[in-house]
Structures are given as structure tokens and as C-alpha cells.
Specification:
The protein has 241 residues and is mainly α. It contains eight helices and no strands. It has helices spanning 2-9, 13-28, 44-64, 114-134, 141-161, 173-182, 185-212, 219-240. Helix 1 packs antiparallel against helix 2 (13-28), helix 3 (44-64) packs parallel to helix 4 (114-134) and helix 7 (185-212) packs antiparallel against helix 8 (219-240). This is Transcription factor domain-containing protein. Keywords: Nucleus, Transcription, Transcription regulation. One of its GO terms (cellular component) is nucleus.
Length: 241
């Protein structure tokens, strides 16, 4: 429902009210303490669903905190107040009642959960960026730009960590298309993830792009702005195609 509201109505109060209700219900259901009890020996499917529900809500909260608007920079879920493990990286049909889920396969292998987990890692990176930007004093342009470059490197490092089927590597298009025959959702997931990264990276550099056209000190922002714009156009073209 949250996806549907965001896609159809955007940043209207209906979305945020619905999110608040969902967040309140998960707290009452104690989902934020799912893994606080080591002696739990219940249904593995139930526990997996609880983890997925909680981390989906958390990643949605963190990602929307980075979108421009009245609520930019504000998120509700504090990572220091929860005790929930990440869901393992595996296909849904590998979950069995009362079975040990283990750690799953490495994150560079495509599964039903791979996008979910990389989206979560990206959401946590966005939270770190938001927290860092909040500490910059208004009017401190030199310190702000130095931090911008540092945070930009974090985004680029994240891109480098992505598995081959999510990376913005046009040379792997044929290989990705073959994978999409077995997992058709992978193309849409790749587009959504990369669109989120490039839009935020470009927005990070936006205050300094114009200066980068004249002052070599800010050249990194100018080049990064062009790089992000080109990749966003490519993603848009692929999405429309």
C-alpha cells in the first residue's frame, strides 16, 4: 500500500499517515525486537516474515528521508533501538517451517531477496549521509564541499560493491538480459536501485556544479553532475524502451 500511495500521490499526508500507522503497529507487535530472544525455536517462516516486514519499513523510512521536501532529513526509526537481524539472501522456496535459515548465499548471487538487501544497504548509507550533512554549519562552504567529496566517495564505493547484475556497466547488458529470462524482475530492480543512487549523488553535488564550470576547485562536482545526469538519462531511456 505504501508503494501504491507514493507512486500515485507522492509526498502527500496520506502516505505519511499510513506509514505512521504501519510503524505504530509493528512496534506494538514487537517486530523491532524480533531477534532479542536467543532461545526462540518457533516457525522459521514467521520469523523471516517479521524480519522482512521490519527492514522493509525501515529502508522505506530512511530512503524517503532523503527526498527533498518538508520532511527531508527526518527519519523515525533509530538503529540503536532495534534488535532485528538482516534476512538471509536466499530464494523464497528455500524457507521451511522450523528449518534453520543460516546466512544465505553471498550478496553477489541473484536471489529473490538480493534487491531487498541491497536496497537496505543503500538506505543505511543514505542515513549516514543525512546524519553527516546535518552537522555542517550553514554558510561554511569549504567544510561543506570537503564533506560533499567525502560522501560522494561513499556513494561511488557503494556502486563498486554492487553485484554485476546491478552495476551501471553497459558492457554487461547481454549477460543481464540472459539472467532476466530466469529472473525477469532483475531489470526493474536494477533500474530502481541505480536511479536512487545517481539521483542522490547528483543532488549532493548540485550546489557546487555551477562553480565547477569556472573554478577547478569544484571540478569534481561538475564532472559528477554530468556523470549522474548521463546515467539517469540512460536509465530513463531503458525504462521507456
Amino acid at each position: 500500500m505504501l508503494y501504491l500511495l507514493w507512486d500515485t500521490e507522492g509526498q502527500l499526508e496520506t502516505f505519511f499517515r499510513t506509514f505512521a500507522v504501519a510503524y505504530s503497529k509493528t512496534i506494538h507487535m514487537n517486530l523491532h525486537r524480533t531477534d532479542a530472544y536467543a532461545d526462540y525455536d518457533g516457525d522459521a517462516v514467521e520469523k523471516e516474515l517479521k524480519r522482512r516486514l521490519w527492514w522493509h519499513l525501515t529502508s522505506t523510512d530512511l530512503l524517503h528521508a532523503g527526498i527533498p521536501g518538508k520532511r527531508e532529513g527526518v527519519y523515525s526509526i533509530n538503529p540503536n533501538q532495534i534488535c532485528v537481524k538482516y534476512p538471509p539472501n536466499h530464494d523464497d522456496d528455500s524457507i521451511y517451517y522450523r528449518a534453520s535459515l543460516g546466512t544465505g548465499v553471498p550478496l553477489d548471487q541473484p536471489t529473490d531477496m538480493c534487491y531487498f538487501l541491497w536496497r537496505l544497504k543503500f538506505a543505511e548509507l543514505c542515513r549516514e549521509v543525512l546524519d553527516a550533512m546535518q552537522k555542517v554549519k550553514p554558510g561554511s562552504s569549504s567544510a561543506s564541499y570537503e564533506l560533499t567529496v567525502q560522501l560522494s566517495q561513499r556513494y561511488m564505493a557503494f556502486l563498486g560493491e554492487l553485484p554485476w547484475f546491478f552495476r551501471p556497466d553497459m558492457g554487461a547488458e547481454l549477460k543481464i538480459s540472459r539472467l532476466a529470462v530466469q529472473r525477469p524482475y532483475i531489470l526493474r530492480q536494477r533500474t530502481a536501485l541505480l536511479f536512487g543512487v545517481f539521483s542522490r549523488l547528483g543532488r549532493l553535488h548540485r550546489p557546487f556544479i555551477a562553480q565547477g564550470m569556472k573554478d577547478s576547485k569544484f571540478a569534481t562536482s561538475y564532472k559528477s553532475g554530468i556523470y549522474c545526469a548521463e546515467n539517469l538519462f540512460k536509465l530513463r531511456h531503458k525504462g521507456c524502451g
